[in-house]
Amino acid sequence: LHCPAQLRVVGPGYSVTATMGQDVVLPCHLSPQRDARTLEVRWIRRTISETVHHYRNGEDLYGQQMGAYAGRTELLRDGLSAGSLDLRITGQRPSDDGQYTCTAGDADAYAETIVDLEVSAPFFHNAQPWMVALALVLVLLAVSIGLGVYLYRKQ
């Protein structure tokens, strides 16, 4: 009697953080580890259940992909045989922020998990309030010096 192995998809267990304009990898894997090359793998935007990336039978399918992700996603194939379903998204945008669902399945089984992505602006990524204040002071200082030189020259 053949019982299909229960499929489990596991996310990273923490929010993935990315900086605007950079690439990010959303981690997701099968547990227990098994070859995922024959599975249908789909990454979906949680809230609108729109397709971010779709993979089936060894092929990436772009027919249902959201326009916002066109040409920006890649299922990392190297890891598929080891059960890794990691998705790379290039050139992070503020709109990429949010929840993604990583799904995998075949005729016998289906599983999904949620991966959170937080996209932040480059400078304020880890900026402390004092850094912001210092930057502001330096900018104001530069402007006032520039203005002073300009006014002095004008005399």
Automatic annotation (TrEMBL):
GO cellular component, one term: external side of plasma membrane
Annotated Ig-like domain residues: 4-120
Gene3D superfamilies reported in the protein's UniProt record: Immunoglobulins (2.60.40.10)
PROSITE patterns documented for this protein: IG_LIKE (PS50835)
Keywords, alphabetical: Disulfide bond, Immunoglobulin domain, Membrane, Transmembrane, Transmembrane helix
MF annotations from Gene Ontology: signaling receptor binding
Entry superkingdom: Eukaryota
Transmembrane segments: 130-152
GO biological process: regulation of cytokine production; T cell receptor signaling pathway
First and last residue of the signal peptide: none
Intracellular or extracellular location(s): Membrane
Lipid metabolism is among the record's keywords: no
PANTHER family in the cross-refs: BG-LIKE ANTIGEN 1-RELATED, BUTYROPHILIN
This protein's name: MOG protein
The species this protein was found in: Asarcornis scutulata
Lineage, top ranks: Eukaryota, Metazoa, Chordata, Craniata, Vertebrata
